[in-house]
Fold:
Amino acid sequence: PDLPPALCHFDWHLGNTLCNDEGRLQAVIDWEFAGVGDPRLDLARHCRLERWTDIVCRDRGSDRDTAEIWRSYAAARFGADADAVLCLGPPEP
Structure:
């Protein structure tokens, strides 16, 4: 499905976040690649980084893990009862 363009970080990973002592997100840093695009690009990159090692092409996650990230993002963006596949399309590991 089409989503309206959004501000995308294009380098989203936990190394580009700053959290307080309680683990709450305080800031997202390193915005030099930022631009406007499909918000699923940041989500897909995060899923890839969670699933695959950067050194060798070896899967370290599961389709269930990826689907859970997809569902959590849909709930945060579209509401708790959002259907992730209807809102975002199917996740592609």
User: Anything to note?
Assistant: The first helix runs from residue 40 to 51. The CA atoms of residues 14 and 46 lie 9 Å apart. The two ends are 18 Å apart (CA to CA). The chain has a mean pLDDT of 82.
